[in-house]
Amino acid sequence: MAAVRRPRRRAWPGGHWWSGGWLLGLGVLVLLWLAGLGWFAASGGAVAALPAHADGIVVLTGGAGRVELGLKLLEQGRADRLLISGVGPAATFAELVHRAGVDPALAPRVTLGRAAHSTRGNAAETAEWANTWAISSLLVVTSYYHMPRAMAEMRRSLPGVALYPVPVVPPDGVPLRLLVAEYSKFLAAELGLSRFSGREDLSEPADKKDAG
């Protein structure tokens, strides 16, 4: 009985080239992503030249030392008013000033914002507050790894306000997974994709104890 000859499969034209080009492109994307992550990790802690005095300060809660620094800057006369955005429902001004070791007489110049649950929400809350108080220059206080994303959202929401980053650097460093998560969220914010997410700040430290 004669053996049945199966038809030979025809190679896809240029298949080897296409496969190699795809792998090369993927490698380039990975390298670009890693380079961006390195830039992100290094740039977040950069401190811009701060003005001698600004109209306001905003603190984005979610990490240790942020609220304390914002209150101390206000006490030092670096700005007229302070917004603490994203304050927990149980936090009180008395508790915050006690922890920061500043004068409770600052109370009339401090607003506790409780509406924000995300970085995009922080920016919206800040824009409303800035409009109320005619703020044209603003010190932005948050953790260094959160600063690039915070600034991206702030620039979008406050186009006419001069923004000055004041990063807080955790003394014990930051886990790599947190940097990676924040970098991914920063890219999404730069592309304007954060508007499709809700309470997205899952990469923030779970304890919002500095603000309730």
Present the secondary structure layout.
Elements: H1 15-43, E1 54-60, H2 66-75, E2 79-85, H3 93-100, E3 110-113, H4 119-132, E4 137-143, H5 147-157, E5 162-168, H6 176-190
Parallel strand pairs: 1-2, 1-4, 2-3, 4-5
Overview of this structure, please?
With 212 residues, this protein is α/β, with parallel strands linked by helices. It is 41% helix and 15% strand. It is built from six helices and five strands, in the order αβαβαβαβαβα. The protein has helices spanning 15-43, 66-75, 93-100, 119-132, 147-157, 176-190; strands spanning 54-60, 79-85, 110-113, 137-143, 162-168. A five-stranded parallel β-sheet has the order 3-2-1-4-5, with helices on both faces. Helix 2 (66-75) packs across helix 3 (93-100), helix 4 crosses helix 5 (147-157) and helix 5 (147-157) packs parallel to helix 6 (176-190). The model is unreliable at 199-212 (pLDDT under 50).
Short description:
The protein has 6 helices and 5 strands.
Sum up the overall morphology in one term: elongated
Mean pLDDT: 82
pLDDT < 50 runs, ≥5 residues: 199-212
SSE ordering:
HEHEHEHEHEH
Can you count the beta strands?
5
How far is the N terminus from the C terminus? 85 Å
Radius of gyration: 24 Å
